[in-house]
Amino acid sequence: MNRPAGPLFARGERAAMVAADLIRRCGEGGITYGYLLLYIALSSGQIFFNKWVLSSKQINFPYPVALTLLHMLFSSVLCFLLTKVFKIIKIEGGIYSEIYITSVIPIGAMFAMTLWLGNSAYLYISVAFAQMLKATMPVAVFFLGAAVGLEALSCRMFTIMSVISVGVVVASYGEISISWIGVVYQMGGVVGESLRLIFMEIFVKKKGVRLNSISMMYYVSPCSALCLFVPWIFLEKPKMDSSGPWNFPPIILGLNCLCTFALNLSVFLVISRTSALTIRVAGVVRDWVVVLLSALIFSDSKLTIINLIGYGIAISGIVAYNNHKLKNEASEIKSVVDVDADDQRKSQDDQAALIPPLKENT
User: Fold this and answer.
1) Could you give the maximum distance between any two Cα atoms of the chain, in Å?
2) What kind and span of H or E run contains 98?
3) Contact present, 98 and 194 (Cβ < 8 Å)
4) Element housing 169 (H / E)
5) How many angstroms separate the CA atoms of 116 and 186, rounded?
């Protein structure tokens, strides 16, 4: 006697749906990891590319302000084409003149300062040592944030900052040759980036404006280009004029600008599929990749055991800092959700109190 095919068909259909859902999730996970790998590759490659352009005798372009200015001009033009001409990416609004003056201009100025000083450091110190000095970023962000009331002082945070600082000091002690001019440039870039992050946090929390990375580049790049144009006119243009006719390789410089924009686009893609914390974690992986690969690529990058031990200590502090920030952000989100739920219950109770009771039929 034949069994009914209904239950077997239903089980087969459910199994097919589960398999399709599993394939879909694997596909989405693969795309996400692909974006993360793309971000790490572009971010690391851009650092190596900038170092090569600025220090190569064949290219002969030791002008960090000019290089950064080209990046900002290229990003400004490309963002305008993508958003206003071809309309591939939608620009988020909410930027008024008051917000632009009080928030976007300071962010653009600090972004220009970060790129200018950070690229200038590559003329004096190795890529590996520059990355080790960048590990002090959370320390600068924390103390500057505490000064303006965005960070709360605590023993836990002091311990984390101490671990990072000790790690950077140990890594610096293990550096074979230190150029203090390069150190000053790099630390100036760290301060500029820390101020940019502080202004960004004020921009988001106090102004209530949230923009994706492409929208931010659309508003910030022209401002950064204008801020870089002034020092370029007075500091680097006379040097470029005195060195003879401008005969710089346009293809290499164009590719360098394109890689910079592609890096910003990869940040947009990663955050759109994950979160800003994932970028932080990927940044830690990127830093290790840059430190280790730079020793193989550039002759001026010579790592010692003390370098690696100190940098490992600093990275452990950075991981603890990111974990602390994640817990704080999660607790803030939970408190906001709880407040919204309480407000909704209160509103429902108020509405129920306004409804008159039904009279019973006598």
Assistant:
1) 106
2) helix 97-99
3) no
4) helix 155-173
5) 10
Among 244, 128, 256, 243, CA closest to 182: 128
Structure tokens at 264: 């910003």
- pLDDT, tens digit (0-9, with 9 covering 90-100), for 206-237: 677 777 777 888 999 999 999 999 999 999 99
- Cβ atoms of residues 122 and 298 within 8 Å: no
Cα–Cα nearest to 283, from 109, 44, 52, 123: 44
CA distance 78 to 100: 20
Q: Under the phi-then-psi rule, with left for phi > 0, alpha for psi from -120 to 50, and beta for the rest, what region is 244?
A: left
Exposure string of 23-44, with b = 16+ CB inside 10 Å and e = fewer, is eeeeeeeeebeebbebbbebbb
Token pair recorded at residue 220: 């910030």
Interval 35-93: pLDDT, tens: 889 989 999 999 999 999 998 887 889 999 999 999 999 999 999 998 888 888 777 66
Between vectors from CA 224 to CA 61 and to CA 63, what angle results, nearest 5°?
A: 10
What radius of gyration, in Å, describes the C-alpha atoms of the chain? Answer: 26
Reported as type and span, the H/E element at residue 239 is: helix 237-242
Residues sharing a CB contact under 8 Å with residue 289, sequence separation 6 or more, in sequence order: 40, 44
CA angle 239, 249, 130 (to 5 degrees): 65
The two structure tokens encoding residue 203: 């921009």
Asked whether 153 and 210 are in contact (CB, 8 A), the reply is no
Sign of the alpha-carbon dihedral angle for 147, 151, 157, 161 = negative
Q: Is 118 helix (H, G, I), strand (E, B) or coil?
A: helix
Residue carrying the six token digits 């879909």: 24
Decide: helix, strand or coil at residue 218.
helix
Task: Return d(Cα 209, Cα 201) in angstroms, integer.
Answer: 10
Q: Which amino acid is at 192?
A: G
- Please, which residues have CB within 8 angstroms of residue 273's CB and are 6 or more apart in sequence? 28, 31, 32, 35
Residue carrying structure tokens 């071809």: 86
